[in-house]
Structures are given as C-alpha cells and as structure tokens.
Amino acid sequence: MDIADLARITWSAVSVHLDVFGTLGLCLGFSAGIMKRRSWMLLASAACSSCFGLHYLHLGAGTGTAMCSISVLQSLVSARFIGAGGRPAWVGPLFAATSLLAACLTLATWSGWASACAGLGSLLATAARLQAEPRRMRRFFLGASACWAGHNLLVGSVFGLTCDLLTVSGLLIAIMRSGEARSAVPA
C-alpha cells in the first residue's frame, strides 16, 4: 500500500460524512447573521466557511471551496483587526490581495455560472468584512448571500441553499431589529 492508496481509502471513508459539514455550515451561517456583536458574526462566519469549504470539496465545487478558504482568512482578520477604532494600514492591501486571489482562483476553477456566482459572492462578502459597523456589514452580506444562493442552486447544494435562505432571513431580522432600536431613540 502506497500513499496514493492510503489517500483513496481515507477519502472513501471520510467523503460519505462530509455532508455533516454542510449541516454544521447551515447552522453556523444562520447564527452568524443574527448575532449582535460584529466579532461574533465574523467568527461564526469563519467557522461556517470552513464547514462549507469541506462540503463543496465533497460536491466537486472547486470555486466554492477556494472562495471559502479566502473567506476564513478574511473573517478572522476582520474580527481581530477591523473595528470602530479603525484598522491597521496593512489590512487594506491584504484584502486587495485576497480579492485578486479570489478572481484568479475563480478563473482557475471556472465551471460557468456557478463560478461567477461564487466569485461575485466572495467579492461582496469581502466588502462586508471591511465594514466596521454591523448594520452596513449585514447589507453587503445580503448581496453576497444572494450570489451564493445562485452558486448553491447550480452545484446542487441543498445545505448551502437552505443556509442562504436562513441567512438572508436572519440578516433581515437583525437589520430590522437594529433599525427599530435606532428609531426608538429620541432625537
């Protein structure tokens, strides 16, 4: 038995269970949208992207897998270094570089409209992660979720599509909740 045989055997044993990651990603995606604290939203989003990256790998959706990898990095950086007090100077160039990487990986893993949806969703999510204010971040994530819904429909990810529908619902609830809180404050 060589390394290639061991890898095939391991993949056969693990691949049937990767939809567990779709289920976990679904739960984490919805919870990220309704969390009140920006950093919690981003940490849950990073965990969600990790799970969906494995789920897309199982489905053979290369662009989705690649975009999830970038999402994990961006979410963790954003949670730690972007906030009300601003952000370090290196964050902008890092996000520009990861956006360029996302564009290159979208082209390298191109599979038609599914790749276009994942690439655009990734760029909108990048814009969301650069926002210091949670309400603005949620609005960009709404656009990203719509793009990812297109991707998930095209690659046949029931978990991803369900997560997108729940995430959009959670984001809308959170946006309305914060809007009501602002309108209740006297001017």
Question: How do the helices and strands line up, and which of them pair or pack?
Answer:
Elements: H1 3-15, H2 19-34, H3 38-59, H4 62-81, H5 91-108, H6 113-129, H7 134-155, H8 158-184
Keywords:
187 residues; mainly alpha; 8 helices
In short:
The chain is mainly α. The chain has helices spanning 3-15, 19-34, 38-59, 62-81, 91-108, 113-129, 134-155, 158-184.
The proportion of residues in beta strands is: under 5%
Detail the poorly predicted runs. Answer: none
Q: What's the story with the biggest beta sheet?
A: none
By DSSP (H or I, 4+ residues per run), the number of helices equals 8
- Percent helix: over 70%
What general outline do the C-alpha atoms trace? globular
If you had to describe this structure to a student in words, what would you say it looks like?
- By secondary structure, this protein is an all-alpha fold.
- The model has no long low-confidence stretch (mean pLDDT 89).
- The termini are far apart.
- The protein has helices at residues 3-15, 19-34, 38-59, 62-81, 91-108, 113-129, 134-155, 158-184.
- 42% of the residues are buried.
- The chain has eight helices and no strands.
- It is globular.
